[in-house]
Amino acid sequence: MRPHVELIQEDDYVWHGAELVAGEGRASERRLSVDEEDGSSSLRVDFHTDWGRGPGIHHANTEYYVLDGSMTYGGREIGKGGYVYAPKGVPTDAITFAEGTRILHYREYGDAGFDPVDSLAHPRRPDAREDVLVIDSEAMTWDAVPNPGPMPGLFIKYLHVDPGTGFYTRLVHAQEGWADHRLAHHPCYEEAYTTQGHMEYNFGTLDLGTYFFRPARIKHGHFTTMEGGTTWLLRSDGELFNWYTQNEWVRWGGEALNYGPGEAPLRWSMSSHDLGSGAGRRTEKDIADLVAALEYQREQGAVDDDYTQHGQGTDPSLLALAKAVDAARLQGGHGPGHSHEHEHDDHGHEHDVPAVDWGVDPAALEHADERTDAHAHNWGRGRVWKSGDPIPAPILSSLPVRSRSRGRWDADGM
Questions:
Q1: N or C: which end of the chain has fewer CB within 10 A?
Q2: Which Gene3D superfamilies does the entry link to (predicted)?
Q3: CATH, residue 106
Q4: Residue 17 in domain
Q5: Can you tell me the distance from the alpha carbon of 95 to that of 97, in angstroms, rounded to the nearest whole number?
Q6: At CA 262, angle to CA 261 and CA 263, rounded to 5?
Q7: Cα separation of 55 and 58, whole Å?
Q8: Which of 81, 102, 133 is nearest to 28 (CA)?
Q9: What is the dihedral of CA 42, 46, 52, 58, to 10 degrees?
Q10: pLDDT digit string (tens) for 35-59?
Q11: Which domain holds residue 108?
């Protein structure tokens, strides 16, 4: 499975020699994320010379997207925004890249293998599906997304959609001021590379060259798009449904052993509510944008709750702890002075378990086959989901790969 990357600036990756089999020329790659089980990879590739290779068959569903420079496929030259989708098992035409070209390169459900063939007349592999797709995305128009979310100003260009699996690749643009105060998780993985602009959210700063890969069901949010809006190339391994929550909290404990001089030691127990106050909190403008998003949702008739900035009001984790302690006492029925020096079978009274409202039974949020299907070992793999199915519980990842230069943590909503 691929690791959770949330999020990283590409400059924090090292360069490797590009793994482009049977090609002529020099190129380097940054490995944004890699699945070590099947070879699936998301890569940033720079071409140091003209580079090319002839017709052949890829071992993986393969995508090329030009950030700068030019790509020629089958004699057709495309500049910035050029996109080629080459399904595995399908003969593809010759492809070349000009010196200095920068691309995003994806391989899915297979490795970097490439088998040269004499021509496009070579037979397809028996399990091959779909056809090669060549697009000039710069010539496409932006379409408003079908479900605009909390605020208007979100637009999309579809590059490829697999009709069988729902896997899709698209460009997404959020206008300045687009904001979402909720947290979301999805039945599919979601990855994105920022091609333009600036967005802030609780896991960091999304600006040019930042990347994330979220396995299925990982919670993420809140979002506020900054000056000039922002654009990503975004991919998912299935149809993307949004399941929203908000005003969430996490509590954890630990012993600080190696904190440096002048740094405050970690308290025995902290919560995200603690981190939401002070210097790490959102600005007044950010909060105003999030409140405006909430009001817009209500105007559209959506079910929503008030937005509360973490660090303000009562810490909800303390309320949950108090509820748990109270429930334990009610189940036992004993005060602090009660002696336990007797056999419980003989003391002549019974205890009714109190009906404590915890919001929802976590087991009710799981698919029946969640941990028993062929991919049970991979919690982050996307599952096919349709309206009416149980909504799977989210995963809260506490150990994502993080960027040295762009990542930040203010726990707003987590």
A1: N
A2: Jelly Rolls
A3: 2.60.120.10
A4: yes
A5: 7
A6: 95
A7: 10
A8: 102
A9: -10
A10: 988 899 999 999 999 999 999 999 9
A11: 5-139
